Amino acid sequence: MSFSVVTKDELARIIAKKDCCRLAELAALVKMDGSIEISGNQRLGLSVVTESAGVARKILTLIKQFFDHNTQVIVRRKARLKKNNIYQVKVSSAPGIRDILVRLGMLDEDGQLSEKIKAGLITRTCCKKAYLRGAFLGGGSVNNPEGDYHLEIITNKEQHALDIAGVMRKFDLSAKVSTRKNWYVVYLKESEQIITCLNVMGAHTALLDFENARIYKDMRNQVNRLVNCETANLNKTVDAAVRQLECIKLIEGLVGLEKLPKSLRRTAELRLQNPEVSLRELGDLLEPKAGKSCVNHRMRKLEKIADALRAKRQY
Ligand SMILES: [Zn+2]
After folding, report:
1. What is the pLDDT of residue 82?
2. I want to staple 48 with a disulfide (CB 3.0 to 4.6 A). Which of 89, 222, 301, 304 is the partner?
3. CA of 84 to the centre of ligand 1 (A)
4. How far is CA 242 from CA 247, 268, 290, 296, in A?
5. Could you tell me the distance, in angstroms and rounded to a whole number, from the CA of residue 134 to the centre of ligand 1?
6. From ligand 1's centre to the CA of 14, what distance in Å?
7. Using one digit for the tens of pLDDT, what is the confidence trace for 7-28?
């Protein structure tokens, strides 16, 4: 199962303790996935569609709690994608449905369609959290933390997208809104922000999984960086040693190492005998011992002598 599905499963099972939060969450779910149906005799109905059984169950439970209305659930199998069912929760047209639609913010007080979050619905912090949970359940997804960090909520209502981003900002989340075809996408990109958002919505198990995956990923990146760094250093050491050996052999062949000052001669001989060791190790082998910079200095001298010999040979 994807991380998104696991997170939604966890969130779908949460039933808020307080009525204010339950109504806020229902309003979000209906705003995200609901549509108003008008029957032949101009009577209104409400239909909410979701692909998650858990979400459908939640919508049904909440609607029944707040509204004494005929509700109906229709399960359909998606034509092409075999595994996903589609659940449609229908609130049949009946007197009083208009009030329900107004309370949930689908219609404003004048009976006009409204994209905004209804004023007063999410004044409290507890309700803002519940609203985000509902919005995420209605149209959210979150990437597997092993990949790129990304959490989004998509809606076809621009004002609603802006409102959701506004609610997120109340929790110090720097939500951004972009468009994708006819959709508006509210999204978060940073791991810290996604963790905060999961926490706000109440997805605590998902949050822990996300944290673990992130720590593991950071550690793996760090190890890779170290390995790359060491490999790079090792390559440098090997390249330098090869160059030094070439120079020393050139001097040996053209003039003989015995012509060199004693300290240089000894260093050159030890390098020939120990082609694989580092400069520091080479310094330890010398009598008396020499530091890395001193050995480095002698190697430079040897390279200079070799360069001079090469230059001479060309004329
Ligand atoms: Zn509340």
Report:
1. 61
2. 89
3. 32
4. 9, 13, 21, 14
5. 13
6. 14
7. 999 999 999 999 999 999 999 9
